[in-house]
Amino acid sequence: MVNDFPQALTIAGTDSGGGAGVMADIKTMQENHVFAAAVVVAVTAQNTIGVTDFMAMPTKLIDEQFQAVAEDLKIRAVKTGMLADSQSVKTVVANLQKYDFGPLTVDPVMIAKGGARLLAEDAIATVRDELLPLATILTPNLPEAEVLTEMHIRDEATMQLAGHRLQELGAKNVIVKGGHETSDTANDFVLLENGESFWVSAPRVETNRTHGTGDTLSSAITAELAKGADVKTAIQRAKRYVSATIANGIEVGHGHGPLNHWAGRQLKEEDD
Ligand SMILES: Nc1ncnc2c1ncn2[C@@H]1O[C@H](COP(=O)(O)OP(=O)(O)O)[C@@H](O)[C@H]1O
Ligand SMILES: Cc1ncc(COP(=O)(O)O)c(N)n1
């Protein structure tokens, strides 16, 4: 059948070091048996040690990438990652309103693990006011949730409160990621559109090989949605996948190392 294979789209920045951004998204979607397409919003000069430079793509080129994808592919689920600046966020929002790419996962990327700012300060309001209300699923880490809700998150109770505030801001479903916490388990709080809430958890791995964890979780969710999973199932499967990529680390680079995107194959073997 023409155009029937599950296809997903990432709208994000590239990582020359291969561990995060568009590169992590494509590897994740591929490993989860979904065809991955990409609209590149920014290019970063980056490795596991840090980001040395980046540039946002011109608006016209972003528009043209959207048009090229929309005219030919049948995208069933889409995610956003690094969006760089306010102009780029507005361009992405306009294109998401123009084309139907299915459920939208918004990973509100702001600052890289190495400390570099990947979203201009004045673009935070644009993300909150214009992009967040389009989100089927919003996936902030703790610092991002704090910035978007303007509250201090200290514990599980404040993570839950933040989830509810983010839903009030317009995101249908929210997952507040606890990767930046220090407890023995990596606990993420999930609040669904119907009001149901629960935690997804995995043992915390003592490692600095966590470059691209957020991208990997959000693109695994997007891949599951592209295959037709419901939101709850997509989040549970994606958590299992990202946990395996962290737990079965590979040694690449000298800083915050990338994940083992092949680890899902091990999970399949365990299941069989
Ligand atoms: N050291 C770790 N061990 C296990 N899971 C982790 C670890 N660090 C992050 N995670 C998980 O990875 C996912 C991404 O979370 P996080 O690292 O907070 O995102 P981000 O990359 O956006 O900062 C979450 O499910 C989180 O719980
Ligand atoms: C292009 C791009 N997108 C996203 C991230 C965030 O990933 P992390 O928080 O793991 O550094 C990144 N470093 N680079």
From TrEMBL:
<keyword id="KW-0067">ATP-binding</keyword>
<dbReference type="InterPro" id="IPR029056">
    <property type="entry name" value="Ribokinase-like"/>
</dbReference>
<dbReference type="InterPro" id="IPR004399">
    <property type="entry name" value="HMP/HMP-P_kinase_dom"/>
</dbReference>
<comment type="pathway">
    <text>Cofactor biosynthesis; thiamine diphosphate biosynthesis; 4-amino-2-methyl-5-diphosphomethylpyrimidine from 5-amino-1-(5-phospho-D-ribosyl)imidazole: step 3/3.</text>
</comment>
<dbReference type="GO" id="GO:0005829">
    <property type="term" value="C:cytosol"/>
</dbReference>
<dbReference type="GO" id="GO:0005524">
    <property type="term" value="F:ATP binding"/>
</dbReference>
<dbReference type="InterPro" id="IPR013749">
    <property type="entry name" value="PM/HMP-P_kinase-1"/>
</dbReference>
<keyword id="KW-0808">Transferase</keyword>
<keyword id="KW-0547">Nucleotide-binding</keyword>
<dbReference type="GO" id="GO:0009228">
    <property type="term" value="P:thiamine biosynthetic process"/>
</dbReference>
<protein>
    <recommendedName>
        <fullName>Hydroxymethylpyrimidine/phosphomethylpyrimidine kinase</fullName>
        <ecNumber>2.7.1.49</ecNumber>
        <ecNumber>2.7.4.7</ecNumber>
    </recommendedName>
</protein>
<dbReference type="GO" id="GO:0008902">
    <property type="term" value="F:hydroxymethylpyrimidine kinase activity"/>
</dbReference>
<comment type="pathway">
    <text>Cofactor biosynthesis; thiamine diphosphate biosynthesis; 4-amino-2-methyl-5-diphosphomethylpyrimidine from 5-amino-1-(5-phospho-D-ribosyl)imidazole: step 2/3.</text>
</comment>
<comment type="similarity">
    <text>Belongs to the ThiD family.</text>
</comment>
<dbReference type="GO" id="GO:0008972">
    <property type="term" value="F:phosphomethylpyrimidine kinase activity"/>
</dbReference>
<feature type="domain" description="Pyridoxamine kinase/Phosphomethylpyrimidine kinase">
    <location>
        <begin position="15"/>
        <end position="260"/>
    </location>
</feature>
<dbReference type="Pfam" id="PF08543">
    <property type="entry name" value="Phos_pyr_kin"/>
</dbReference>
<keyword id="KW-0784">Thiamine biosynthesis</keyword>
<keyword id="KW-0418">Kinase</keyword>
